[in-house]
Amino acid sequence: MAHPSLKSAFAERRFIVAPGIFDMISAKVADGMGFTSLYVTGFGTVASHLGVADAGIATYTDMVGRVSTFARGCKTPVIADADTGYGGLLNVRHTVMGYEAGGVTGIQLEDQEMPKKCGHTPGRKVIPAEEMCLKIKVAVEARRDPNFLIVARTDARTTLGLDEAIRRGRMFADAGADVVFIESPESEAEMQAIGRSIDKPLLANMVEGGRTPILPAARLAEIGYAIAIYPAVGFLSVAAALERAFSHLKQHGDSNGLPASESYGFGRICELMGFPEVWDFDKKWAQISPLAEEKR
């Protein structure tokens, strides 16, 4: 069931910072930190689940189970990437219904041609704006809970220019999108123009090393944005930490001497994954089980 708190945050103009989650460890860590929302990154989820590029290879079947697991395992509302809706209008309807049933609070749909490519990478092509508007209308009709939010993204900026991207953003808002996401503006001035031009909650995609400048939350709010997602910061940090740890292991032949800052701690990860509850369960039922009686 969609969390009403996310829709309320937009209505109350509380700026939202959403970290990217890509597996259940990243989801559990982020879930305990007090964020208003979490963002299921397509790039990170495809990379961690399939080990391939986010280039339209992952299917609805690959993704719906993953995003549903994230939503069920987190108390924080989850916005999840759903690429193009994995096909035409009927596919979009099926995708929206599946994501909503899985407990997601917001779904992101984009106007790329299939197979899609990750934002901030070259070679992205978009479908006609009118076709995307139909997808948005189908998505709005398919949802059952009004707290389930439709995030509509356009990748038109990179190939067709800023004016076309803004035009599409306005069309998407008119078609019923709750949040408009114009991907890959290339300067703060472009982001200001977007903020002036579209009267809907706007999403900023903050990708380290991407095409868009990373601005402070206060500045994003000032120029008209409502939410910033950080899809890559988690998996980039994890990959770097793994490389350092594995390099130490390869060089020294053991994990002795790893800096304490490089380890989360076995006790902490046990707690994060819910082992104390498991131990309490085992303790309770071991006291009254027939096997326990036989051992006395």
The name of the CATH superfamily of the largest domain reads Phosphoenolpyruvate-binding domains
Numbering strands along the chain, what is their spatial order in the largest sheet? 1-2-3-4-5-6-7-8
Strand content: 5-15%
CATH topology of the largest domain: TIM Barrel
Mean pLDDT rating: 94
CATH class of the largest domain: Alpha Beta
Structural class: alpha/beta
Number of strands: 8
Pfam families: PEP_mutase
Protein name: Isocitrate lyase/PEP mutase family protein
GO molecular function, one term: lyase activity
Keywords: Lyase
From the structure above, extract its key features.
296 residues, alpha/beta, 2 domains, globular
Please give a structural write-up.
- The chain is an alpha/beta fold and 296 residues long.
- It folds into two domains: 4-231, TIM Barrel (Alpha-Beta Barrel); 267-296.
- 49% of the residues lie in helices and 12% in strands.
- The chain has helices at residues 4-11, 24-31, 42-50, 60-73, 89-101, 129-142, 156-160, 162-175, 188-197, 217-222, 233-252, 266-272, 275-286, 290-295; strands spanning 16-21, 38-40, 78-81, 106-110, 149-154, 179-182, 202-205, 227-230.
- An eight-stranded parallel beta barrel has the order 1-2-3-4-5-6-7-8, surrounded by eight helices.
- It starts with a helix and ends with a helix.
- The mean pLDDT is 94.
- Pfam families: PEP_mutase.
- This is Isocitrate lyase/PEP mutase family protein.
- GO terms for molecular function: lyase activity.
- Keywords: Lyase.
